[in-house]
C-alpha cells in the first residue's frame, strides 16, 4: 500500500476521517473531501500533523451530489499525485420520519447524497481506477438490508448503495478493479446529531472501520470480500 493514493468522500470527520488516518499510517497518500473547503483543509492539516509516515493528505472542496464537482476532485488528485488507486465513497447523511412527514427536500437530499453520490464518485474515477487496477469501496449500512419505521429515505438509499456496489463489482472485476461495500451498524460519529462521548464506547469506532478498509486492501488479489456486514459485539439491551 506504500505510495498508493486514495480519494475519500466525506473525509473531514467520522468514518471517512478514520479511514484516512488508517490509510496514511500504511503510507497511502490521501485526499479528503467535504462540501466545506475549510473543513476539508482543516482535516488534511490535522491528518498531516497526527500521522508520522511520509504520506501526506490534501483537502478538497467537493459535493458528491454534483458530478462535475466529483470530476474536479478526481482531476485535482491526479494533478497532485499523478495516480488514483483507491476511492472510498463514504459521504452520507440521514433524514428520518414517517412517509407522511418525509418532505420532498429530505428525500432528495438523502438519495442525491447517499446513492447518486456513490454513482458519481465511481463514474468520475472509473478510468483512473482501471488504469491503476485499483479498489473502490462504498460505505453502505446495515440499513441496506434491514428496514425500519421512519427510515424510508435512508433505507432506500442504503439498499440502493448495496445493490449498486455489488453490480459494479461484476462490471469492473474483469478490468482488474476490485469493488467492495462495507455495511456498518452503529458507529461512534456525529451522524444524525450524535455527539461522540464515553457512552458510545459500545459502538464501532471509526478506527475499526479504518482497520477493516486496510484489511480489504491487503487481501490477496485472488480473493474479494465483496460485501461485509460489521456490527457492535455487545449493543445495549433493549429490555
From TrEMBL:
It comes from the Bacteria. One of its GO terms (biological process) is monocarboxylic acid metabolic process. It holds the Pfam family adh_short. Residues 4-191 form the Ketoreductase domain. Belongs to the short-chain dehydrogenases/reductases (SDR) family. This is SDR family oxidoreductase. It comes from Hyunsoonleella flava. The lineage of its organism: Bacteria, Pseudomonadati, Bacteroidota, Flavobacteriia, Flavobacteriales.
Amino acid at each position: 500500500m506504500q505510495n498508493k493514493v486514495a480519494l475519500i468522500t466525506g473525509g473531514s470527520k467520522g468514518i471517512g476521517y478514520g479511514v484516512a488516518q488508517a490509510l496514511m499510517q500504511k503510507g497511502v497518500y490521501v485526499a479528503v473531501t467535504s462540501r466545506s473547503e475549510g473543513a476539508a483543509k482543516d482535516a488534511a492539516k490535522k491528518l498531516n500533523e497526527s500521522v508520522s509516515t511520509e504520506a501526506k493528505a490534501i483537502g478538497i472542496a467537493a459535493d458528491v451530489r454534483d458530478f462535475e464537482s466529483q470530476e474536479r476532485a478526481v482531476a485535482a488528485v491526479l494533478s497532485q499525485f499523478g495516480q488514483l488507486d483507491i476511492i472510498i465513497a463514504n459521504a452520507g447523511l440521514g433524514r428520518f420520519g414517517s412517509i407522511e412527514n418525509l418532505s420532498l427536500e429530505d428525500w432528495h437530499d438523502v438519495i442525491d447524497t447517499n446513492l447518486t453520490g456513490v454513482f458519481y464518485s465511481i463514474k468520475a474515477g472509473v478510468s483512473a481506477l482501471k488504469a491503476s487496477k485499483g479498489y473502490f469501496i462504498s460505505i453502505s449500512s446495515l440499513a441496506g438490508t434491514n428496514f425500519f419505521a421512519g427510515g424510508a429515505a435512508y433505507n432506500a438509499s442504503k439498499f440502493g448503495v448495496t445493490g449498486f456496489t455489488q453490480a459494479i463489482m461484476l462490471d469492473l472485476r474483469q478490468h482488474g478493479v476490485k469493488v467492495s461495500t462495507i455495511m456498518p451498524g452503529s458507529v461512534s460519529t456525529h451522524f444524525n446529531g450524535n455527539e461522540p462521548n464515553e457512552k458510545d464506547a459500545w459502538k464501532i469506532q471509526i478506527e475499526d472501520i479504518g482497520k477493516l478498509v486496510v484489511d480489504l486492501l491487503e487481501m490477496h488479489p485472488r480473493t474479494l470480500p465483496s460485501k461485509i456486514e460489521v456490527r457492535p459485539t455487545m449493543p445495549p439491551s433493549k429490555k
